[in-house]
Amino acid sequence: MLSEIQILEKIYAGFIGKAIGVRLGAPVEPTIWSYERIQKTYGEVTQYLRDFKNFAADDDTNGPVYFIRALRDYGLDATAEDVGRTWLNYAAEEHGMYWWGGFGVSTEHTAYRNLRAGIPAPQSGSIAQNGTTVAEQIGGQIFIDSWGWVNPGNPQRAADMSAMAASVAHDGDGLNGARFCAAAIAAAFEAKSIGEIIETAMGTIDAGSTYARVCRAVIDFHKASPDDWRACRDMLEAEWGYDRYPGVCHIIPNAGVTIMAILYGKGDLPRTAEIATMAGWDTDCNAGNAAAIVATFQGLHEGWEKYRKPINDFLVASGIVGSINIVDIPSFARELTVLALQLAGRDVPQLWLEDFTRRGLRFDFDLPGSTHGLRTEGFNQISLRHSAERHVEGSRGSLEIQLDRLERGQGGRVFWKPFYRRSDFDDERYRPMFTPVVDGGQTVSFKLWLDPWNGDGNLRVAPYVRRTMSGAIEETGAWNVPSAAGWQDYSFVVPEGVEAIDEIGISIEYFGRLKFLGRLFLADFRVEGAGHTVIEPKTETQEWGAITRFTYNRGHWTKQDGRIHGHTAGDADMWTGHYYARDVVVTADMRRLAGVSQLVTARVQGTGRFYAAGFEGDEVVITREDFGSTVLARAPFRVETGKSYQLAFTLTGTALSLAVDGVPLLNTTDASYAHGMAGIRLASAGRMSVGRIEIVETV
């Protein structure tokens, strides 16, 4: 039986492989890029084809991050209907998450509209509902990696669960693709060869299906010609090409490329991803699927370095939860490992359970090569890498900060980014949205150990935060020369302010007379405690379709006269704050401009699951939303259009209360939601204007 650490390391390797494959293949996606154009332009692909400031979100990784949350929200026996609700709950309508290519064109767009119309899964993705062409596009296999990772060594259950999940949008060979890829990942944990992985996965799909036939065609060709993948690609073009299968990205030609890359890659992640990219068709999907399988099989390998280093343990998603969209790959791998252990009926380490719903961060550098996305800025003599040389108790590693011949006055910053802006990206892939992961009042702590090789010892550090709008650096502690005798503890409280924080870390400066050469080791990096958020709209800006520090779903959101202006013909929401904020007081300066509904929200766990309080017609209400609205408390209240009211929504344990202008008006209890984001909401057609918003976390 695999140990919990072995499972964790395999999942970590597999997810890094997925990220590498998607990033490598994305710049040459169809339809403009063809197999011939890729070959003519790049020849043999042996490196990333584009540099990115930060690689933005992609649907191939959005799905594995978000859809598996059905097991968290609805339990380990979640159904297709539960996964369908998960689709609706975490996706913003017509931006982010999926390719919104049009109803009847994009499989995911079609399924989403079906779900919104009340057609439940699996009918939402069935051939009977949508026709064969829509049901058998490539999405059946590109979103299902996590269902394989949570079933290590159990390919049959991985296949069954992935088909259940994929049935939200797919049917027919779309489900065979889901079964094959998830089963292959599950088998890769324990298999002894690539051939064993493929045959195990083949055993979970319909042997008479077109999907099985294209796989067998590639397997047979590989046996006859094991070293010429381009000849195999020519066979696929002639016998299984796009001209034979309708739609934009049909699963069958791409299944052929995926299994071809797995076979001809010979168990090596880089070569597998390169072949899948050079082969054309849906390059990011195929490279991502094939790489996830092979990386899980191969495990972390030093030969990945040129592809792994730019990933830097960091991935962006584009669901509606801004704090989840900043994905720390080691932490996400640990979450999947918890689910894997729970599905297997095994004990879960207590600390991992705490991490599962942590209001904050815990970076332990335990996984081989892990960096947790920390970065450096300043003189180029400072570089970062994982180290197994020094570590704290409970971990096998730390972050090694290499300091190369610093001269007097030189230095830089080492930091983690808890928030991103549009300017942090140089592409528009799937339009991510962010809310700060770290807020005022929280405590940041870490450990440092100095290893000086050359110099006179005068290297000092100071903890700091950076404000995102002004770029101002705020030192949060005194300058200090780190200990060279062992680990030294550092901590500070994140300062309050009306600007979001987009860096937390240490400033480094050398003030000696001799050149400094040496290392700093950083370990046990944490952010803990209740946060305090203050948003003054005049300090924010319009960005990515809404207002900075907010994610949104539907409606038109702008800044007018230093306030947030919301306008919708239906319902519309904006959210901020951390997904695992618990007891809170949410206050907002609210004005009704038109319509009957102006609300604040709290413990928001998605588009369809939250509490709301505020104005509905000539009443004040507290409601619970669970894909339908239940009024928990109400009272008469005459609202004057254009007048500002101070709404205060307080949630403490199961107690919920609303006050307006300091006067308590409603009290009720409900135990449905224990944590979530906060926000503002129009539940029906109308307009509102919102000034200062404050979120005070009390637990």
- Classify the secondary structure makeup into a structural class: alpha+beta
Per CATH, the architecture of the largest domain is Orthogonal Bundle
What is the count of β-strands? 30
End-to-end gap: 39 Å
- What percentage of the residues does DSSP assign to strands (E)? 25-35%
Domains, number: 3
What's the name of the CATH homologous superfamily of the largest domain? ADP-ribosylation/Crystallin J1
Count of helices? 21
- Over all CA atoms, what is the radius of gyration? 26 Å
The fold-level CATH name of the largest domain is: ADP-ribosylglycohydrolase fold
Q: Please bin the fraction of helical residues.
A: 25-40%
Mean pLDDT: 97
Task: Give the CA-based shape.
Answer: globular
Instruction: Report the biggest beta sheet as strand number plus sense, adding barrel if it closes.
Output: 8 strands, antiparallel
CATH class of the largest domain: Mainly Alpha
Sequence stretches where pLDDT stays below 50 over 5 or more residues: none
Q: Which descriptors apply to this entry?
A:
699 residues, alpha+beta, ADP-ribosylglycohydrolase fold, Jelly Rolls, 3 domains, eight-stranded antiparallel beta sheet, 21 helices, 30 strands, globular
Overview of this protein structure:
This protein has 699 residues and is α+β, with helices and mostly antiparallel strands. It folds into three domains: 4-45 and 57-302, ADP-ribosylglycohydrolase fold (Orthogonal Bundle); 362-529, Jelly Rolls, CATH 2.60.120; 533-697, Exo-inulinase, domain 1 (Jelly Rolls, Sandwich). Helix content is 31%, strand content 28%. It is built from 21 helices and 30 strands. Strands 14, 18, 19, 21, 26, 27, 28 and 30 form an eight-stranded antiparallel beta sheet that branches. A seven-stranded antiparallel beta sheet has the order 17-20-29-22-23-24-25, with no helix packed on it. Strands 3, 5, 6, 8, 11 and 13 form a six-stranded antiparallel beta sheet that branches. It is globular, with a radius of gyration of 26 Å. The mean pLDDT is 97.
